[in-house]
């Protein structure tokens, strides 16, 4: 694994924990999110001997801004060897108040937000024939889940995209990794009004991520007891899958 990481979604949750863990391991970091104040505090906490940590605030849905951020990182810190496109959000959906804007918003952040960052780094990585592209997706993209149509669709698209990208970059020196977390305790999941099975702490998630990325795994997924169960559900035929999930979730 290389030494300069461009991390998006660094201002809270999994991204913030990942920044701290990566800094402890000696990586240099360029941190992006919209909240410049939170990034500034994190930079101060992560700086240390032998590594550079700096903030580059921005909105991942703004394609031009991500191109400018990547350019600023390169001119101030050097080549980006590893992109960790982690910025994302969730809006629970209510089919009785169907609103296409919710779906568009989540596609813009969770899917196009990642693509905007990849576009900003891929040409240089191709020129150099090296680099590592990481996108944080979700197990919610494995199959349709109740009240998660917008989120799940955006993550399914992202996982699908990363799978294709890995094949397209197969004969290059560029590595592609998708991260599929189960439930992790963050400000995002603090809003959930249901019991989250196998809930993980953000620090543990960040450590699992860094380890899997360092091993250049195609998919990093955790916690394993939960993700293997969901992988098993993925191969069930539709009627069986439907009955099983419907029986676990009471109608809202
Ligand atoms: N927590 C879980 O259980 C879980 C499970 C599966 C997957 N994930 C995925 O893990 C990633 C991190 O989630 P989290 O739980 O750590 O959530 P979080 O605490 O809400 O953090 C989300 C991060 O994304 C940033 N962000 C959101 N919209 C952005 C935008 N338009 N431009 C730039 N940055 C933006 C936020 O920063 P600003 O608001 O400052 O911009 C924040 O730093 C997400 O992709 C999420 O889908 C989480």
Q: Could you walk me through the main structural features you see in this protein, from its secondary elements to its overall organization?
A:
There is one protein chain. The protein is of the alpha/beta class. The chain has one domain (4-248): Rossmann fold (3-Layer(aba) Sandwich), CATH 3.40.50.720. 48% of the residues lie in helices and 15% in strands. The protein is built from 8 helices and 9 strands. It has helices spanning 13-24, 36-46, 63-77, 100-128, 149-168, 202-214, 224-234, 238-248, and strands at residues 4-8, 28-32, 53-55, 82-85, 131-136, 174-181, 184-185, 200-201, 219-222. The strands form 2 sheets. It has a 7-stranded parallel beta sheet, sandwiched between helices. Helix 1 links the parallel strand 1 (4-8) and strand 2. Helix 4 (100-128) packs parallel to helix 5 (149-168). The protein is globular and about 55 Å long. 38% of the residues are buried. The model has no long low-confidence stretch (mean pLDDT 95). NADP nicotinamide-adenine-dinucleotide phosphate is lined by residues 8-15, 33-35, 59-61, 86-89, 109, 113, 136, 138, 181, 183-184, 186-189.
Descriptive tags:
binds NADP nicotinamide-adenine-dinucleotide phosphate; alpha/beta; 252 residues; seven-stranded parallel β-sheet; 48% helix; globular; Rossmann fold; two-stranded parallel ribbon
Q: What level of helicity do the residues show?
A: 40-55%
CATH superfamily: NAD(P)-binding Rossmann-like Domain
The whole-angstrom Rg is 18 Å
The level 1 CATH classification is Alpha Beta
Number of domains: 1
**CATH architecture classification:** 3-Layer(aba) Sandwich
In CATH terms, what is the fold-level topology?
Rossmann fold
Strand content: 15-25%
Q: Report low-confidence residues grouped into runs of 5 or more.
A: none
The helix/strand class is: alpha/beta
Main beta-sheet strand count, sense and barrel state: 7 strands, parallel
- Give the distance, in angstroms, between the N- and C-terminal Cα atoms: 45 Å
Would you report the number of β strands? Answer: 9
Shape: globular
Number of helices: 8
Side-by-side strand order of the widest sheet: 3-2-1-4-5-6-9
What is the succession of H and E elements?
EHEHEHEHEHEEEHEHH
> Please, what is the average pLDDT?
95
Ligand inventory: NADP nicotinamide-adenine-dinucleotide phosphate
